[in-house]
Prior knowledge:
By secondary structure, the protein is of the alpha/beta class. The protein has helices at 21-30, 45-50, 52-69, 85-109, 167-170, 187-199, 218-230, 284-287, 323-337, 366-371, 387-391, 421-433, 438-442, 453-461; strands at residues 2-15, 35-39, 113-116, 118-123, 126-131, 134-145, 149-151, 164-165, 179-183, 202-206, 234-236, 240-246, 251-257, 260-266, 268-271, 275-277, 310-312, 351-353, 358-363, 376-382, 399-405, 411-418.
Amino acid sequence: MVVGDFAQGTQVAVIGGGPGGYVAAIRAAQLGLEVILVEKEFLGGVCLNWGCIPSKALIHVAGLKAQIERAGNLGLITGGVSVDLQAMLDWKNRIVEKLRKGVASLLSGHGVQVVQGTARLTGESSFTVEGPDGVHRFEFEHAILAVGSSAAQLPGIPCDGRLVVDSKAALDLAPLPERLLVVGAGAVGLELGMVYARLGSRVTLVDSADRLLPMLDRDVARVMERALKDEGIEVILASRIRGLERGESSARVLLASPDGETSVEVDRILVSIGRWPNTNGIGLEKAGVKVDKRGFVTVGDRMETSVRRIYAVGDMVAGPMLAHKASYQGKVAAEVIAGQPAAFEGVEVPSVIFSDPEIATVGLNEQEAAERGIHVKVGVFPFKALGRALVLGEEGQGFTKVVSDAGSGIVLGVHIIGPHASDIIAEGCLAVSSGSHVDDLALTMHAHPTLPESIEEAAEQVEKRAIHIFNV
């Protein structure tokens, strides 16, 4: 039932309050446009409430526990470390609430009207919102769709929040399972699998790919394989879930692989096999917005859909499902609407896995360059030769790798696995996005002793000139 016949109008309607939507709304408001933002649940979306932020909070705690347990190697003698799960979850939730309130304050301060409810397009310039007090109609001059994605589920084995959970439920750890099976060895699987392992669960990681992290540099994957082994995490590759035999409080999971069938006894199953765009049920067909065969909204480099006045950003369009991509695209859409020159074209999207060691990449790796017929020169510098890494107690086999075009010397990619890779990659992002020459990195003076020195040394090693390793 529609409440009243009056339809409120706005210049820009933003549907979805996640990192794509709220950023788009703020940028549009900064550019002088009238903005309404509709969010059905919590501002900040999945990333802030059930993804990026809470998972990294738990990763930090689990990592700190591991550091304390290894502190004896540094001469710091500690007693046993115990974990108060509820206190940890309360701390995590306070961070989320603080940031959520911060987003609300930013939107209010920029004059963005926030409407609570579920939005559905009803035409090329209108939509309804079903909220706590009924259904309201709105009209817009322009709309930015930013409704995000949802976790994919195993066929025939739906998440029930108890035995079978997705990444959202996995962030509320209590009670900690004795045996955890993680299905999917991508970013979420690696990150949360390592959290559970460090907090005391016996973790098994299963993936259908025949090698770990096939989308990343092979050398990066090899280092991560060793790290998982050191953590006591069992990795089963080239295998799929064939069935599930439920018990009272546990289950027997049947696995199929090229070598035959096997089974794993578990107390909980974390499904992390990817995400699907939330493009069903929001009225795209009524507005004439086209989607591709996978359900993603088709857009151009200005984030405009098949309907001239409607834009789409973030997880509901093809490409990496990453918060920073959504935010960047949100700003592009808002700026285009405001008549400014903006486009999401040729933008290199960095990717980070907050495992231990961390993985951070941007641009092409060696395999991708070879597939494109590009001859490359590569420089690699290991963290075990870096003073700052050693004094931090990080003596693993991580490295920084710079991939450059052999002919022009242009930096094509930077790939890091090691301590604080998520922070170091920023310099690589700048180099790749600006088309920097490898000498721009090598000739930039880096402070000592720091982790980003690995960028300088890797760049120098492209021409076999690194100082702190033998050039053979």
